[in-house]
Each structure stands twice: as C-alpha cells, then as structure tokens.
Amino acid sequence: xxxxxxxxxxxxxxxxxxxxxxNSVFVVDQREKALLFKFxxxxxxxxxxxxxxxxxxxxxxxxxDGRLLTLDNKTETFLTVEKKNVEVDFFVKWRIKDVGNxxxxxxxDDAVAENRLAAIINPGLRAEFGSRTIQQAIxxxxxxxxxxxxxxxxxxxxxxxIELVDVRIKSINLPRAVSESVYQRMRAERTRVASDLxxxxxxxxxxxxxxxxxxxQTSIADAYxxxxxxxxxxxxxxxDISAKAYGSDQEFYAFYRALxxxxxxxxxxxxxxxxxxxxxxxxxxxxxxxxxxx
Length: 294
Description:
This protein has about 290 residues and is α+β, with helices and mostly antiparallel strands. About 60% of the residues lie in helices and about 20% in strands.
C-alpha cells in the first residue's frame, strides 16, 4: 500500500471511529427524560441528567420533555344537580413521571397524552358538578371540587405514566337563559330578605316608640303625683298657719279676710254690687264709718 492510500485509509478509519463515538454518546438534559431502544424495543428508561453511552447502529435514544406541561382544555358544558347547564373553563398541570409507561400508553405523542388526560378529567368534573347545585359550584366549593377530582383522577393518569400536578377552574359561567333565571331568583331572595329586615326594623321601632311613650307617661304621672303631694303639703301648711293665726287673734283674722274681700269685690271701678246696708259684708266698713263719726 503506497503512502497516499495508507493515509487515506487511516483518515477513513479515524472518521469512522469518530462517527461511531459520536453515535455512541448522548446527553440527557435536566429538562428531559430519555428512553433507550434496541431494535425498536424499550430497554432502559431510568436515565439521569448527564452523558451516557449506547451501542451505535443497534441502540437508539428518544427524548421527551420532562418539564411541567399544561393542558388548556376548551370550555365544557356540565349539568348540575338541578339539571342546569354550566360552562366550565379549566386547565390541567401535568408532567411525565414514568417515561416507559408514557411511551407505551401514548406512543410518546403529547397530543395523544392530552386527549387521554382530558378523557379522564372531563368525566370527573362532570360527576362533581352533577352532585352540586349551581350556587354551591359558583359560590365557594371550587377547592372541594378540585380536591375530590385529583383524588379520583390520580390513579387513572398514573397508568399513562403521567403525574397530575394541579387542576384549576378558570371560570364557571351560566348560559344566558340560566343566568337570567338565577339572577332573578337571587334578586327575589335579596328582596325578600330586605323586606324581612325592614319589617323587623319597623317592629323594633314601634317597640322603642311604645316604650318611650310609656316612659313619658310614667314620668308625667310621677311628676303630677309629686306636684299634687307638694301642693297638698303646701295647702296643709297654709291651713295650719291660717288656723294658728285665726286662733291667736280671731278678730284681726276676720278683719283681714274682710279687707281681702273688699279688694276683690271692688277691683274695677265699674263693678256694681247690690247688698243690704245691714249685711255682714259691710260689717267693718260700717264700724269704720261709725268710728269716724265719733
């Protein structure tokens, strides 16, 4: 073999060796999962991130996305326990857990995996909404629905080599006709509650007013009683003083009373009285006149 042919042969051997080496080495990224095939059959699936080797021409490697994936499902219509339709928009977070089972169940096709995953999640949601009223589904039981769904779906999706990470409802909407019916019922219920509260308030106001009136009447009665008591005590003292005064000087007291009588009788110059001159009323006037004559 001449030197030129020898160099060409060596170069060919080196290139072939390099090709064999390149085909013998593969790298698995941290975000990937890998399957080793031998003549089309799965041989190994437990590769970690790093550099690995395989037999060239005999073994092959297929890689899959090991990151968190999202199934953004289209809006589905479910029936509630009242046989009312609700439109539910949801998404599912999932990842490949067992790449061997995943490949055998789906052929390694993410679209097939999502279709099979949706076929598991949708009936689960249908069952959860079918056991609840519209108000329960909308108002506050989303977490309970998701929790119950994850429990029932986890075992089924694991058969696909998939790990179910999270299921979330983005929105729950009512069809237009159902929405109007629900809103009317809610409005009627709020109106009933408002009327009931208003009636209770009016009843309470009447009770407060009646209590205030009763308290006022009681206060007035107590004040009148106290005033009558004081008036009686005053009259009694007046009578007692008058009696004592009359008893100490009866003549003076009679004269004092007569003067008060004259003052009240002749208060106005136009007053006219027709009495007998010898009457008791003029007793002290007559005595005063006789004294002046003497």
